[in-house]
Amino acid sequence: MSATCDVTGAGPRYGNNVPWSHRKTRRRWNVNLQRKRYFLPSEGRYVTLRVSAKGIKTIDRRGIESVVARLRKQGKKI
User: Fold this and answer.
1) What pLDDT is attached to residue 75?
2) How far apart are CA 70 and CA 49, in angstroms?
3) Which SUPFAM superfamilies does the protein's record reference (predicted)?
4) pLDDT value of residue 1
5) For residue 33, which of 64, 55, 66 has the smallest C-alpha distance?
6) Nearest to residue 4, comparing CAs of 26, 29, 33?
7) Is residue 44 packed enough to be buried (19+ CB in 10 Å), middle (13-18) or exposed (0-12)?
8) How far apart are CA 48 and CA 18, in angstroms?
9) Distance between CA atoms of 24 and 63, rounded to whole angstroms?
10) Where are the beta strands (DSSP E) in the chain?
């Protein structure tokens, strides 16, 4: 399973570790992913999503119904 947010599509970012000596080595910044369970009142069931912290705020702002409708419109199975 890839480390991407179901809502925002955010994935890991890549860059360099740069110490004082400037010897660069590659590193990776992971997304703050959480497994969250939301209740869909229209369907009377729960859905489990892998969402980032920003995705949780998006769901709080827009509502779970509109977010799930947008995900289904994009072709994602929920």
Assistant:
1) 95
2) 14
3) L28p-like
4) 60
5) 55
6) 33
7) exposed
8) 38
9) 43
10) 13-17, 25-29, 33-40, 45-52
Q: Which residues of the chain have pLDDT under 50?
A: none
d(CA 34, CA 31) in angstroms, rounded, equals 9
Quick one: angle between helices 64-73 and 53-62, nearest 10? 110
For 14, what's the count of Cα atoms within 13 Å in the CB-facing half-sphere? Answer: 2
User: Please, what are the domains in the chain?
Assistant: 13-73 (2.30.170.40)
What does the alpha-carbon distance between residue 77 and residue 19 come to, in Å, rounded to a whole number?
A: 43
Q: What is the pLDDT of residue 2?
A: 82
Please report where in the chains the tokens 């072709």 appear, as a residue: 75
